[in-house]
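Lab channel / #folding
Pinned by the channel admin:
"Please post every new chain as: sequence first, then the structure tokens as a reply. Keep commentary short and put observations after the output so the thread stays searchable."

First post following the new format, from NK:
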Amino acid sequence: MTISVIDASPSILTARMRFPFHFGSVTVSRSVHLLLELEVEIDGARETGVAMGGLYPGWFFKDPDRSFTQGIEAMLDVFEAAWEQSTEIEAASPFAFRRTLYGEQRQWVGGTDLPPLAWNYGVSLVECAVIDAACRHHNVTFARAVREGLLGIDPGAIYDELEGLDPADALPDDPLREIALRHTVGLTDPLTDADVAPGECPEDSLPYTLEEGIAEYGVDRFKIKLSADIERDRKRLGRIAGVLADCGLETYAVSLDANEGYGDIETFCRDWERLASDPALEDFLESVLYVEQPLARDAALGSDTARVLPDWDEIPVLIDESDDRPGSLSRALECGYAGTSHKNCKGIFKGIVNRCLIEHRRRTDPEGTYLLSAEDLTTLGPIELTQDLAVAATLGATHVERNGHHYYRGLDPFPEEGTEETLAAHDDLYRRHEDDFATLAIEDGRLDLNSVVDAPFGRAIEIDSNRFTPLAQWDVADLEE
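Reply from TO:
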């Protein structure tokens, strides 16, 4: 196979959230989404591949001195560099293409202060569009493309211990056809009606409080944000535990996300042990699956962490923001972490290879704890969400953090024509709400993925980029209005 990118067409979609969301210390009330359409040549034939990514600079940079618009500008620079460099590459497979582009992007970033998590996102978006084109060229699903070697994935190129491993031997035999949602509970999200001030509730008929979300969606998986303030977290977790009990949930599962809130491993361990010693939280903490990225990324994989965490077995701990380059998972495991998260924005091939490493470690060390979670950076359908779910299904993730359906009013940010097409093509994943808008079809806290796993890389609709704003005609200054 030979694969090259002939042309790139970027467009913009802006969206306003139903209510603000907190990424750590950053509050987000509006968002920018980049649609990338690539013309790809595969073995002499032309195919169009698309990808879409949300621009959330507060998560990528964690720089309080960088304004929202400055962050958007920096991310657009990263994306532009990636797609321009992609037109200079010819490779033997999508996997090889991604590795070459990553090397070019790393050279481009040079001595700038752009963190790897940010500039790698540009590579990942191109990677996503190339995979989309390859699946459509071969007319196969993402799961088949991975298992039949059509994407050229070589885990041994990333981790020596995986030399010769076929991804098909480390992944489930078939993609999952349903997945449970982990409902996100942000730092300031209302838990009950008592938390809602007059006039605060969004003027729509979707759930707003945690108790409304449980009643409407039937969710029993939750992702709860931590503030890294022990007293604040103790009180908040106690209140959440009470709401779950009042809602009649006898069993549930929880992940906790500290979003780099702690500066050192000792403080995190001490705070966790204080939480664990609180009798009021005993039953609740038994439901916690893992804690995600408690440490700032400059400390997360350092020598102090490697000294303390391997001998601390109170709760599994994962990296997220620190998983910012190929091979990060191996270093995390050396430092005592149980694993990492998967997000398409960090790399689809990275997620597949990391899943292979996790499975390899489980087989060679059956007494150990090795985890790969599936997380969400507020993905929106029908492009970003369906591709994300196609990967999660192939990885075998039984539950995934989902929050786009909660912080946005369904598919309202998208052009109406695309919404109608999505409802027709993905009638198991989306439904028409009683108030006549398209929203996720969540039944008993789960999503039906049949139309996703049966479509080439998740999406069963064609994309008309003319319905979006060309990047050349869009001005980031408009966000300040």
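NK: Residues 160-466 form a domain with the TIM Barrel fold (CATH 3.20.20.120).
TO: also worth noting, The chain has a mean pLDDT of 95.
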